[in-house]
Design goal:
With 297 residues, the chain is an alpha/beta fold. The protein has 2 domains: 118 residues, D-Maltodextrin-Binding Protein, domain 2 (3-Layer(aba) Sandwich); 134 residues, D-Maltodextrin-Binding Protein, domain 2 (3-Layer(aba) Sandwich), CATH 3.40.190. 40% of the residues lie in helices and 23% in strands. Strands 1, 2, 3, 4, 6, 7, 8, 9, 12 and 13 form a 10-stranded mixed beta sheet that branches. The chain has a 3-stranded mixed beta sheet with strand order 5-10-11.
């Protein structure tokens, strides 16, 4: 009996299986435009990042999972290697930078937009102006100001950190200062309660989720007077561009993957023409204003 054909058959099958296995391995490999990854996102900017991810996934064979948390929780997970891509309103501090340098990883930081911290009040409140000086004094425990109470999104959020730094304090006061878990809860609370001032990320007001739309209609967005200004400015795209709104902040994608993975591709996409158009449409300020082509007929 001639066994050669069977041996040849089995040899061919083994080669084919190896080839298919290698091909699957190549298909599953993460590159700058395909594969899957998780991005840690400061909850303040969740709406705009959701839009960016949706368009990016529609263009490329990529699957990006958004893990939205408070700023402190994002940093904690970032350092624990839960994900090596984070979106924050600040760069890494010296200690965090050194941590990655010890791992032989050089963080790649891409600025993608400018956002703002906004103050909101119930629609029944006719006063739509607030001074930054009063906010700082109130946070310092000096209650002889026109503010009855402040409501923050989360004690570990970037919003709290930002205002604490302005006031020169380490923790929010215990009297007449409240916090929830998210920006959405702050908007709802202010919409249902008169007399309190909410402190939220502007992105949530320009891009409210469907269940927030009715609540947003019941609030006023306050104009703010800076410490060195006599005028009041609303948190608009134009005022962010002119640098007149006193509570602006930049958004960064920080990539510590150490490889040419999706973090690099996504950052380039958001900082590119399509991504910046998404930022512009969202009401935030792009780093680069997308050009417009004029067609003459």
């Amino acid at each position: 009996m001639n066994y050669f054909p069977f041996r040849t058959y089995y040899a061919i099958m083994i080669v084919m299986l190896i080839f298919v296995g290698c091909k699957r391995s190549d298909d599953d490999k993460e590159t700058i435009l395909k594969g899957s990854t998780t991005i840690l996102v400061d909850e303040s900017f969740q709406p705009i990042i959701e839009d960016q991810v949706a368009v990016f996934q529609g263009e490329y064979k990529a699957k990006i999972t958004i893990n939205a948390r408070s700023e402190k929780e994002v940093i904690r997970a970032f350092l624990k290697d839960t994900s090596r891509i984070a979106i924050l309103s600040r760069k890494l501090n010296d200690e965090e930078q050194k941590y990655f340098e010890n791992l032989k990883i050089k963080p790649k930081v891409t600025q993608i937009a400018s956002d703002a911290i906004a103050f909101i009040s119930n629609k029944s409140n006719n006063d739509t102006l607030i001074t930054l000086k009063d906010v700082i004094l109130f946070m310092q425990g000096k209650t002889q100001v026109r503010i009855k109470g402040l409501v923050f999104d989360n004690p570990n959020s970037s919003t709290v950190r930002y205002v604490n730094e302005l006031a020169g304090i380490k923790e929010i006061p215990k009297n007449n200062v409240f916090s929830f878990k998210s920006n959405k809860e702050v908007v709802r609370f202010v919409a249902e309660n008169d007399g309190m001032i909410g402190v939220v990320g502007l992105n949530w007001l320009y891009q409210p989720s469907p269940d927030m739309i009715d609540d947003v209609k019941k609030i006023n967005v306050l104009s703010v007077q800076g410490q060195k200004s006599k005028e009041f400015f609303a948190p608009t795209q134009n005022n962010l561009a002119e640098g007149t709104y006193p509570l602006a902040r930049d958004l960064f994608i920080i990539n510590c993957q150490g490889t040419t993975g999706l973090g690099m591709g996504f950052a380039s996409f958001v900082a590119g023409d399509i991504g910046q158009r998404i930022v512009l449409k969202s009401g935030l300020l792009p780093i680069r204003i997308p050009g417009r082509k004029l067609l003459f007929k």
